[in-house]
Specification:
Length: about 230
């Protein structure tokens, strides 16, 4: 189709760690695109390279080979500035309360404190965390912490959301709740979504599945209308 906005373009991308006998090839020869509106699950075993690929897509890591570009995203200092990331581990700053954690990226981008706080409260209400707005991270459950991280993405309203094993440390029921919040968030802000996961329940909720195996991207399986290009 024509007129599709390419958010991420990976061209023969590779990522290598170490050197000599300690060399680890995490990603090798990957070419793919993420388009506006995509819902993509990157699946594979632990160590397959799926998290590294997601980090490369977000500009969090620099490729050892090939090129990653972001044709339709805002750029700042050579990196995409229109990407929200939800990590597997807890990513909230312990010294700040939940509202301050959600508002912080907005303040750092130049939004006034008042507006940032208002947007943070709206986002927390959307993920049903209003009651925890003034709690500090250590007072939250794992699921609540991940929903707070999702609220932080919602408040910033990026064009692309990357989630690296967002439910990897959660039980099945909590994982379902977090995934619901994530999907509702990207629908609300109109963002594309790429999720790395080893959980079939997560993968089946997204329209396209890309399999990483030994650092290489296999042909994607499409289960819905949207889908990235390999």
């Amino acid at each position: 189709m024509t007129g599709e906005r390419v958010l991420v373009d990976c061209d023969d991308v590779g990522r290598v760690y170490g050197s000599g006998s300690t060399t680890v090839v995490a990603v090798s020869g990957v070419s793919c695109q993420v388009l506006a509106g995509d819902r993509i699950a990157v699946v594979g075993r632990s160590g397959s390279g799926k998290s590294t690929l997601v980090h490369l897509m977000g500009g969090l890591e620099t490729p050892s080979a090939g090129r990653v570009s972001w044709p339709a995203l805002r750029m700042r200092r050579g990196r995409p500035d229109d990407v929200g990331v939800v990590f597997q581990g807890l990513s909230l700053l312990p010294a700040l309360d939940v509202t301050e954690n959600v508002a912080l990226p907005l303040v750092l981008s130049g939004v006034s404190q008042e507006e940032a706080t208002e947007r943070a409260m709206v986002a927390l209400a959307a993920v049903r965390l209003t009651a925890q707005a003034r709690a500090v991270p250590e007072e939250l459950s794992g699921g609540q912490s991940q929903r707070a991280a999702i609220a932080r993405v919602l408040a910033a309203a990026p064009a692309l959301v990357l989630a690296d094993e967002p439910t990897g440390q959660l039980d099945h029921e909590t994982a379902r709740t977090v995934l619901d919040a994530l999907l509702q968030t990207v629908d609300r802000i109109g963002a594309a979504l790429v999720v790395s996961t080893h959980d079939p329940m997560i993968a089946e909720r997204l329209q396209v599945q890309w399999e990483m195996r030994d650092g290489q991207l296999r042909a994607p399986a499409q289960t819905g209308a949207a889908g990235g290009r390999q």
